[in-house]
Amino acid sequence: MDIPYTPLLRTQLEIERFWQRLMKPLGWAHASLWFVVVGPDDRPLPVMNEIDELPDLTSGDVAGYLAERLGGILLRRFGAGHRYVLLYSRPGRGRPTEHDRACLRALGAGLRRHAVPADVGHIATDTGIYPMAGDDILAA
């Protein structure tokens, strides 16, 4: 019987290591949003979810709509004390671009507007998983 991988996810480094372990092999056909639910004990539930073929998060209020839906699921299904850990992935080589940072800023703003507890801060490309500084996500 396999034991689920449920490390503590309290720091940015722990979350980065979590994504690096789970997101192999790298390489994406289109943008996706990956997420896990983390319990009050700071351990992820043993299920990873993907929103595939993600529309551009900077277009209209796509990020706000997505955040509202994620918040509803979290509240109805899991309740207080739970949060999301999210990873934005997109095709292409190299480090995160300004558009990648804009996508995370839009998502972060939508999550804050709808009071959805979440850790947003990692981008996966075809060549790596990159942590984003809080300033990159919180910037207006």
Walk me through what this model shows.
The protein contains 4 helices and 5 strands, in the order H-E-E-H-E-H-E-E-H. By secondary structure, it is of the alpha+beta class. The chain has a single domain, classed as Cytidine Deaminase, domain 2 (3-Layer(aba) Sandwich). A 5-stranded mixed β-sheet has the order 2-1-3-4-5, sandwiched between helices. 31% of the residues are buried.
Structural class: alpha+beta
Number of domain modules: 1
What is the CATH topology? Answer: Cytidine Deaminase, domain 2
Helix content: 25-40%
**Beta content:** 15-25%
The pLDDT mean sits at: 91
Determine and state the CATH class.
Alpha Beta
Structure summary, number of beta strands: 5
- Assigned CATH superfamily: Cytidine Deaminase, domain 2
N to C succession of SSEs: HEEHEHEEH
| Low-pLDDT segments | none
Question: How many angstroms separate the termini?
Answer: 47 Å
Q: Give me the number of helical elements.
A: 4
In the CATH hierarchy, the architecture is 3-Layer(aba) Sandwich
Q: Which term fits the overall shape?
A: globular
> Whole-number radius of gyration?
14 Å
